[in-house]
Hints:
3 helices, single chain, alpha+beta, six-stranded mixed beta sheet, elongated, about 15% helix
Amino acid sequence: MKPLVPFTLPISGLRDGMHEYRFQVGDEFFSCFEGSVIQHGNLTVDLSLDKRPNLMVLHFRIDGTVQVDCDRCLEAFDLPVRDEQNLLVKYDEEPREEAEVIYIEKGTFELSVAKYVYEFIHLAVPINKTHERAGAECDPEMLKYIQYVL
Length: 150
């Protein structure tokens, strides 16, 4: 789990205001999540954290590529991924999660954002993954087989 250590933010001593973080996400990151659909990738995640007295607003900017299999020709290719997501962190008596809002106990020392980075990257991958999305073309040999079957 050492690849996930950089994704742990020390929030207890953080002063109010804006804080910027940058994370590199690669193959080692995805290997920490059992059964991950994505195994290979090279992404940069920029996180803007706006700490306020009663809450934190996290804004994630994701940019890079993930390796996926083309839905048409089954060849692996690097798919460009770019997305932005927000997450609110509020203080409460017991920790819980809701859509786009997580609650943590007051006095929590640190917050791991690894799980959210992982989820946001997966959400950025389109349902239809074809070479055309990467500005490339499918394997012509495989396309011959597809046309023959149709």
